[in-house]
Specification:
By secondary structure, this protein is mainly beta. It contains five helices and 17 strands. The longest helix has 11 residues.
Protein backbone atom coordinates (compact mmCIF):
# COMPACT_ATOMS: atom_id res chain seq x y z
CA UNK A 1 0.00 0.00 0.00
CA UNK A 2 1.37 3.40 -0.98
CA UNK A 3 2.48 5.84 1.70
CA UNK A 4 1.85 8.71 -0.73
CA UNK A 5 -1.79 9.44 0.02
CA UNK A 6 -3.93 12.39 -1.06
CA UNK A 7 -3.60 15.27 1.37
CA UNK A 8 -5.93 14.97 4.34
CA UNK A 9 -5.83 11.17 4.52
CA UNK A 10 -2.82 11.06 6.84
CA UNK A 11 -3.53 13.89 9.25
CA UNK A 12 -5.42 11.83 11.84
CA UNK A 13 -3.18 8.76 11.80
CA UNK A 14 -1.44 7.83 15.06
CA UNK A 15 2.03 8.07 13.53
CA UNK A 16 1.35 11.58 12.25
CA UNK A 17 -0.19 12.83 15.52
CA UNK A 18 2.74 11.52 17.56
CA UNK A 19 5.18 13.70 15.63
CA UNK A 20 3.54 16.87 16.99
CA UNK A 21 3.69 15.98 20.68
CA UNK A 22 6.85 17.97 21.34
CA UNK A 23 9.76 19.75 19.71
CA UNK A 24 11.93 16.68 20.29
CA UNK A 25 9.40 14.58 18.34
CA UNK A 26 9.65 17.08 15.48
CA UNK A 27 13.45 16.84 15.66
CA UNK A 28 13.15 13.07 15.32
CA UNK A 29 10.80 13.41 12.33
CA UNK A 30 13.38 15.75 10.75
CA UNK A 31 16.20 13.24 11.30
CA UNK A 32 14.13 10.42 9.81
CA UNK A 33 13.00 12.48 6.81
CA UNK A 34 9.41 11.68 7.72
CA UNK A 35 6.45 13.00 5.71
CA UNK A 36 4.10 14.90 8.03
CA UNK A 37 0.71 16.47 7.53
CA UNK A 38 -1.11 19.28 9.33
CA UNK A 39 -3.32 22.28 8.64
CA UNK A 40 -2.14 25.43 6.89
CA UNK A 41 -3.55 28.36 8.85
CA UNK A 42 -2.19 31.46 7.07
CA UNK A 43 -0.75 32.43 3.70
CA UNK A 44 1.25 35.63 4.33
CA UNK A 45 1.70 38.57 1.97
CA UNK A 46 4.74 36.88 0.38
CA UNK A 47 2.74 33.67 -0.16
CA UNK A 48 4.58 31.67 2.47
CA UNK A 49 2.32 29.11 4.16
CA UNK A 50 2.17 29.07 7.95
CA UNK A 51 1.36 25.62 9.30
CA UNK A 52 -0.02 24.60 12.68
CA UNK A 53 2.31 21.96 14.13
CA UNK A 54 0.76 21.68 17.57
CA UNK A 55 3.70 22.69 19.76
CA UNK A 56 4.75 25.42 17.31
CA UNK A 57 4.09 26.93 13.90
CA UNK A 58 6.20 26.06 10.90
CA UNK A 59 6.65 27.86 7.59
CA UNK A 60 6.61 26.58 4.03
CA UNK A 61 8.47 29.21 1.97
CA UNK A 62 6.67 30.15 -1.24
CA UNK A 63 9.08 28.30 -3.57
CA UNK A 64 8.65 25.18 -1.42
CA UNK A 65 4.85 25.38 -1.54
CA UNK A 66 4.31 23.25 -4.64
CA UNK A 67 6.06 21.70 -7.62
CA UNK A 68 6.58 24.26 -10.38
CA UNK A 69 6.25 27.42 -8.29
CA UNK A 70 9.94 28.33 -8.63
CA UNK A 71 9.83 27.81 -12.40
CA UNK A 72 6.55 29.68 -12.88
CA UNK A 73 4.83 26.53 -14.19
CA UNK A 74 2.45 26.51 -11.21
CA UNK A 75 0.44 29.57 -10.20
CA UNK A 76 0.41 30.88 -6.65
CA UNK A 77 -3.27 29.99 -6.31
CA UNK A 78 -1.97 26.47 -5.68
CA UNK A 79 -0.53 27.82 -2.42
CA UNK A 80 -3.22 30.31 -1.46
CA UNK A 81 -5.97 27.73 -1.86
CA UNK A 82 -4.37 25.46 0.76
CA UNK A 83 -5.23 27.76 3.69
CA UNK A 84 -7.40 25.96 6.28
CA UNK A 85 -6.68 22.62 4.60
CA UNK A 86 -4.24 19.79 5.39
CA UNK A 87 -0.87 19.97 3.65
CA UNK A 88 1.96 17.44 3.60
CA UNK A 89 5.61 18.37 4.01
CA UNK A 90 9.03 17.42 5.28
CA UNK A 91 11.01 19.39 7.85
CA UNK A 92 14.18 20.71 6.21
CA UNK A 93 15.57 22.68 9.17
CA UNK A 94 14.80 24.87 12.15
CA UNK A 95 14.84 28.60 12.71
CA UNK A 96 13.21 30.94 15.22
CA UNK A 97 10.31 33.36 15.03
CA UNK A 98 10.96 37.04 15.92
CA UNK A 99 9.59 36.30 19.40
CA UNK A 100 12.16 33.56 19.92
CA UNK A 101 9.77 30.64 19.42
CA UNK A 102 11.06 27.70 17.37
CA UNK A 103 10.11 27.74 13.70
CA UNK A 104 10.48 24.56 11.64
CA UNK A 105 11.26 25.21 7.98
CA UNK A 106 9.19 22.96 5.75
CA UNK A 107 8.96 21.82 2.13
CA UNK A 108 5.86 20.51 0.36
CA UNK A 109 7.73 20.54 -2.94
CA UNK A 110 10.20 17.89 -1.75
CA UNK A 111 7.35 15.56 -0.81
CA UNK A 112 5.69 16.07 -4.20
CA UNK A 113 8.97 15.36 -6.00
CA UNK A 114 9.42 12.16 -3.99
CA UNK A 115 5.80 11.15 -4.58
CA UNK A 116 6.21 11.67 -8.33
CA UNK A 117 9.45 9.72 -8.45
CA UNK A 118 8.62 6.85 -6.10
CA UNK A 119 4.89 6.42 -6.71
CA UNK A 120 3.27 8.21 -9.64
CA UNK A 121 5.95 7.40 -12.22
CA UNK A 122 5.67 3.72 -11.24
CA UNK A 123 1.93 3.50 -11.86
CA UNK A 124 0.67 1.54 -14.85
CA UNK A 125 -2.61 1.77 -16.79
CA UNK A 126 -5.26 -0.24 -14.97
CA UNK A 127 -3.96 0.44 -11.44
CA UNK A 128 -6.72 1.27 -8.96
CA UNK A 129 -5.64 4.04 -6.59
CA UNK A 130 -6.94 6.39 -3.91
CA UNK A 131 -7.95 9.92 -4.83
CA UNK A 132 -9.57 12.89 -3.14
CA UNK A 133 -11.83 15.38 -4.91
CA UNK A 134 -10.34 18.89 -4.89
CA UNK A 135 -12.66 20.86 -7.15
CA UNK A 136 -15.28 20.41 -9.82
CA UNK A 137 -15.52 21.98 -13.26
CA UNK A 138 -18.11 21.49 -16.01
CA UNK A 139 -15.67 19.35 -18.00
CA UNK A 140 -14.52 17.09 -15.19
CA UNK A 141 -13.47 16.38 -11.63
CA UNK A 142 -10.02 17.35 -10.35
CA UNK A 143 -8.58 15.02 -7.73
CA UNK A 144 -5.49 14.75 -5.58
CA UNK A 145 -3.80 11.40 -6.33
CA UNK A 146 -0.98 11.83 -3.84
CA UNK A 147 0.60 14.59 -1.75
CA UNK A 148 -1.39 17.35 -3.45
CA UNK A 149 -0.56 16.30 -7.02
CA UNK A 150 -3.62 16.90 -9.19
CA UNK A 151 -5.18 14.83 -11.94
CA UNK A 152 -8.44 14.99 -13.90
CA UNK A 153 -11.35 12.62 -14.39
CA UNK A 154 -13.13 13.81 -17.57
CA UNK A 155 -16.90 14.06 -17.12
CA UNK A 156 -17.56 11.23 -19.59
CA UNK A 157 -15.27 8.91 -17.58
CA UNK A 158 -17.09 9.43 -14.28
CA UNK A 159 -19.94 6.98 -14.92
CA UNK A 160 -21.83 5.19 -17.68
CA UNK A 161 -24.97 7.20 -16.87
CA UNK A 162 -24.33 10.67 -18.29
CA UNK A 163 -24.48 13.63 -15.92
CA UNK A 164 -24.75 17.36 -16.59
CA UNK A 165 -22.00 18.31 -14.13
CA UNK A 166 -19.54 16.40 -11.90
CA UNK A 167 -21.34 17.84 -8.86
CA UNK A 168 -24.13 15.41 -9.69
CA UNK A 169 -21.77 12.65 -8.60
CA UNK A 170 -19.08 14.11 -6.32
CA UNK A 171 -18.44 16.75 -3.69
CA UNK A 172 -15.16 18.52 -2.75
CA UNK A 173 -13.00 16.61 -0.21
CA UNK A 174 -14.74 13.31 -1.02
CA UNK A 175 -12.42 10.31 -0.93
CA UNK A 176 -12.90 8.07 -3.96
CA UNK A 177 -11.20 5.33 -5.99
CA UNK A 178 -9.99 5.85 -9.55
CA UNK A 179 -8.30 3.85 -12.31
CA UNK A 180 -5.14 4.99 -14.09
CA UNK A 181 -6.04 5.19 -17.78
CA UNK A 182 -2.74 6.43 -19.16
CA UNK A 183 0.50 8.17 -18.23
CA UNK A 184 1.67 10.96 -20.48
CA UNK A 185 5.28 11.84 -21.25
CA UNK A 186 4.98 15.08 -19.28
CA UNK A 187 4.16 13.09 -16.13
CA UNK A 188 0.43 13.79 -16.14
CA UNK A 189 -1.86 10.93 -15.21
CA UNK A 190 -5.16 10.40 -17.03
CA UNK A 191 -7.88 8.85 -14.88
CA UNK A 192 -11.19 7.07 -15.24
CA UNK A 193 -13.83 6.07 -12.70
CA UNK A 194 -16.76 4.35 -14.40
CA UNK A 195 -15.05 0.94 -14.58
CA UNK A 196 -15.30 0.60 -10.80
CA UNK A 197 -19.08 1.06 -10.74
CA UNK A 198 -20.03 -2.34 -12.10
CA UNK A 199 -21.06 -3.92 -15.39
CA UNK A 200 -24.54 -3.80 -16.88
CA UNK A 201 -25.29 -7.25 -15.45
CA UNK A 202 -23.97 -6.39 -11.99
CA UNK A 203 -26.13 -3.29 -11.81
CA UNK A 204 -29.20 -4.88 -13.37
CA UNK A 205 -29.01 -7.71 -10.80
CA UNK A 206 -29.93 -5.16 -8.13
CA UNK A 207 -33.39 -4.79 -9.69
CA UNK A 208 -36.28 -6.93 -10.90
CA UNK A 209 -39.08 -6.35 -13.41
CA UNK A 210 -42.25 -5.38 -11.59
CA UNK A 211 -40.49 -3.32 -8.92
CA UNK A 212 -41.01 0.41 -8.41
CA UNK A 213 -37.71 2.04 -7.48
CA UNK A 214 -36.01 5.41 -7.05
CA UNK A 215 -34.30 7.19 -9.93
CA UNK A 216 -32.95 10.51 -11.15
CA UNK A 217 -33.85 12.12 -14.48
CA UNK A 218 -30.64 12.58 -16.47
CA UNK A 219 -31.90 13.41 -19.98
CA UNK A 220 -35.17 14.50 -21.56
CA UNK A 221 -35.44 13.68 -25.27
CA UNK A 222 -38.28 13.83 -27.81
CA UNK A 223 -38.44 10.04 -27.88
CA UNK A 224 -38.25 9.46 -24.11
CA UNK A 225 -36.78 10.23 -20.72
CA UNK A 226 -33.58 8.64 -19.42
CA UNK A 227 -33.78 7.85 -15.72
CA UNK A 228 -30.69 6.78 -13.79
CA UNK A 229 -31.19 3.82 -11.46
CA UNK A 230 -27.51 3.58 -10.52
CA UNK A 231 -24.48 5.50 -11.81
CA UNK A 232 -23.83 2.71 -14.32
CA UNK A 233 -27.43 1.87 -15.22
CA UNK A 234 -30.10 4.08 -16.79
CA UNK A 235 -33.40 3.19 -18.38
CA UNK A 236 -35.76 4.81 -20.87
CA UNK A 237 -39.29 5.91 -19.99
CA UNK A 238 -41.95 7.24 -22.34
CA UNK A 239 -42.06 11.02 -22.99
CA UNK A 240 -43.81 13.33 -20.55
CA UNK A 241 -44.20 17.12 -20.52
CA UNK A 242 -43.88 17.61 -16.76
CA UNK A 243 -40.34 16.26 -16.26
CA UNK A 244 -37.06 18.16 -15.95
CA UNK A 245 -33.42 17.08 -15.82
CA UNK A 246 -32.21 16.58 -12.26
CA UNK A 247 -35.60 15.74 -10.80
CA UNK A 248 -36.04 12.67 -8.63
CA UNK A 249 -38.51 10.03 -9.74
CA UNK A 250 -40.23 6.84 -8.73
CA UNK A 251 -40.21 4.45 -11.69
CA UNK A 252 -41.83 1.12 -12.45
CA UNK A 253 -39.50 -1.39 -14.13
CA UNK A 254 -41.30 -2.96 -17.09
CA UNK A 255 -38.39 -5.10 -18.25
CA UNK A 256 -34.62 -5.57 -18.22
CA UNK A 257 -33.18 -6.70 -21.57
CA UNK A 258 -29.50 -7.76 -21.31
CA UNK A 259 -28.91 -8.41 -25.03
CA UNK A 260 -29.80 -4.78 -25.74
CA UNK A 261 -28.55 -3.42 -22.40
CA UNK A 262 -31.91 -1.73 -21.89
CA UNK A 263 -34.19 -1.08 -18.95
CA UNK A 264 -37.73 -0.14 -19.92
CA UNK A 265 -39.37 2.11 -17.34
CA UNK A 266 -42.61 3.89 -16.53
CA UNK A 267 -42.42 7.10 -14.50
CA UNK A 268 -44.88 6.88 -11.61
CA UNK A 269 -44.02 10.29 -10.16
CA UNK A 270 -41.42 12.99 -10.70
CA UNK A 271 -40.52 15.74 -8.24
CA UNK A 272 -37.88 18.21 -7.04
CA UNK A 273 -35.84 17.19 -4.00
CA UNK A 274 -32.50 18.02 -2.41
CA UNK A 275 -31.28 14.58 -1.40
CA UNK A 276 -27.59 14.16 -0.67
CA UNK A 277 -25.54 12.07 -3.08
CA UNK A 278 -25.47 8.48 -1.91
CA UNK A 279 -22.06 6.94 -1.07
CA UNK A 280 -20.30 5.46 -4.09
CA UNK A 281 -20.86 1.71 -4.41
CA UNK A 282 -17.70 0.20 -5.86
CA UNK A 283 -17.88 -3.27 -7.35
CA UNK A 284 -14.07 -3.16 -7.62
CA UNK A 285 -12.03 -1.08 -5.16
CA UNK A 286 -8.44 -2.31 -5.32
CA UNK A 287 -5.89 -4.07 -7.44
CA UNK A 288 -5.40 -3.81 -11.18
CA UNK A 289 -7.65 -3.99 -14.25
CA UNK A 290 -6.32 -5.31 -17.56
CA UNK A 291 -9.68 -5.23 -19.30
CA UNK A 292 -13.20 -4.26 -18.26
CA UNK A 293 -16.30 -5.15 -20.24
CA UNK A 294 -19.51 -3.32 -19.39
CA UNK A 295 -21.72 -5.18 -21.84
CA UNK A 296 -23.10 -8.69 -21.13
CA UNK A 297 -21.70 -11.58 -23.25
CA UNK A 298 -25.08 -11.83 -25.03
CA UNK A 299 -25.24 -8.15 -25.94
CA UNK A 300 -25.48 -6.97 -29.53
CA UNK A 301 -22.48 -4.67 -29.09
CA UNK A 302 -19.40 -4.63 -26.88
CA UNK A 303 -18.60 -1.77 -24.51
CA UNK A 304 -15.21 -2.26 -22.93
CA UNK A 305 -12.03 -0.58 -21.71
CA UNK A 306 -8.62 -2.08 -22.46
CA UNK A 307 -5.85 -0.98 -20.09
CA UNK A 308 -2.89 -3.29 -20.84
Amino acid sequence: MSIYKPEGMMIDTLSNRQAFRSLSCLQEAFTQGKILESRAVVCDSEHNLIVDMGCCRGIIPRVEGALGIAQGATRDIAIISKVNKPVCYKITGFSTHPDGAPCPILSRRLVQEECTREYIMKLTPGDIIDAKVTHLEAFGCFVDIGCGIASLIPIDAISISRISHPRDRFRPSQEIKVVVKSLEENGRVSLTHKELLGTWEENASLFSAGETVAGIVRSVEDYGIFVELTPNLAGLAEPRDDVAIGQHASVYIKSLIPEKMKAKLIIVDCFDAQYQNTPVNYFIAEGHLSRWQYSPPCADRIIETIFD
